[in-house]
Automatic annotation (TrEMBL):
Keywords: Cell membrane, Membrane, Transmembrane, Transmembrane helix. The keyword Iron does not apply. InterPro entries: ABC_transp_permease, LivM-like. This is Branched-chain amino acid ABC transporter permease. GO terms for molecular function: branched-chain amino acid transmembrane transporter activity. GO terms for cellular component: plasma membrane. Pfam families: BPD_transp_2.
């Protein structure tokens, strides 16, 4: 697996800014020119771009490898869905408690890992273990459906944005808002004092600690921020699909799908997770379409494709696609370059 990108651009060039503006405009007007299927694909792309950004806070900014981020998606989804179904609490209010529950879970994992010196791949295994425990546990919690699934009520033709009830276009713009919000938040964090501490901890933890950085606090903050953001993605997933199954929501496969956009696009970069999602998800959807159109029964082929894509990126573009693309097209200024 490739490490965080060391490319630290000093700013976006005029060409880069123009491309960003055009991309933003294209995404804003997309629902007006795209059919229902394409809108659903774009919504899926944006969702993976968002959760990829959330995961990037841990791995990309602070160097903490998590392979169990499906845990936070699942907790956010189940908490918000349960509040809505059993108590009539809407998702905009329920997401607060959902994020809080995910933060508590993340902090428990972080405390166990950081206090007992669990690092690297062993910390990643710890995150997997908690996600698996949650999957097995929710399989037996009948209050939220257990293994039989938990279903949110849906009224045909209903339009209620306050309860995230509406057309696919509504969810598309919510997903777009999440991506834009996460992008600006990530940029603010990366250029804050906390962000510089994260980078120091990621690159040289011993030197960072010697210079006065509280490693435990910095890492716990990264876990808390990442888990909260990911849980918000879980809230969206619950109300978008209206059904939850522990085997799917907490699965290891879902965790892998969450981290792939950042790996492909560029770990530690702001645009990388977004670009990675726009590369991987449409290709995966196209592969699924071709399989179904050909009447083939090839279970696991999509996962095989993702694995092959990961191998190609690690071998040929270990920093990810975005750093290479940005340099080739002159989209960012490197340190020392003039405005």
């Amino acid at each position: 697996m490739s490490g965080p990108s060391r490319m630290m651009p000093s700013g976006v060039t005029g060409r880069g800014m123009m491309l960003l503006v055009l991309a933003a405009l294209g995404l804003v007007i997309a629902p007006f020119v795209a059919d229902r299927y394409l809108v659903s694909v774009l919504t899926t792309v944006l969702w993976f771009a968002y959760v990829g950004q959330a995961w990037n806070v841990m791995m990309g900014f602070s160097g903490l490898l998590s392979l169990g981020h499906a845990l936070y998606v699942g907790l956010g989804a189940y908490v918000s869905a349960a509040l809505f179904v059993h108590f009539g609490i809407g998702p905009w209010a329920g997401m607060v408690l959902a994020m809080l529950v995910a933060v508590v879970a993340g902090c428990v994992i972080g405390f166990l890992g950081f206090r007992f010196g669990v690092k690297g791949v062993h910390f990643a295994l710890l995150t997997i273990a908690f996600a698996e425990v949650a999957r097995i546990g929710f399989d037996h919690i009948t209050w939220v459906g257990g293994s039989g699934g938990f279903f949110l009520p849906v009224e045909a033709g209903a339009s209620d944005p306050l309860n995230l009830r509406g057309s696919p276009v509504l969810f598309y713009y919510v997903a777009l808002a999440l991506v834009v919000g996460a992008l600006f938040l990530s940029r603010a964090l990366l250029h804050s004092r906390l962000g510089y501490q994260w980078l120091a901890v990621r690159e040289e933890p011993d030197a960072a600690e010697a210079s006065g950085v509280d490693l435990f606090r910095a890492r716990m903050t990264a876990v808390a921020v990442s888990s909260a953001l990911t849980a918000l993605g879980g809230v969206f997933q619950a109300f978008y699909f209206n059904n939850l199954f522990p085997e799917q929501v907490f699965s290891m496969g879902r965790s892998i799908e969450i981290i792939l956009p950042a790996i492909v696009g560029g770990i530690g970069t702001l645009v990388g997770p977004i670009l990675g999602a726009f590369i991987l998800t449409p290709l995966g959807e196209a592969l699924t379409f071709l399989i179904e159109a050909g009447g083939l029964d090839l279970p696991g082929l999509k996962q095989l494709f993702y694995g092959a894509a990961l191998v190609v990126i690690v071998v040929f573009r270990p920093e990810g696609v975005w750093p290479w693309l940005a340099r080739r097209l002159g989209l960012v200024r490197q340190p020392g370059e003039g405005a």
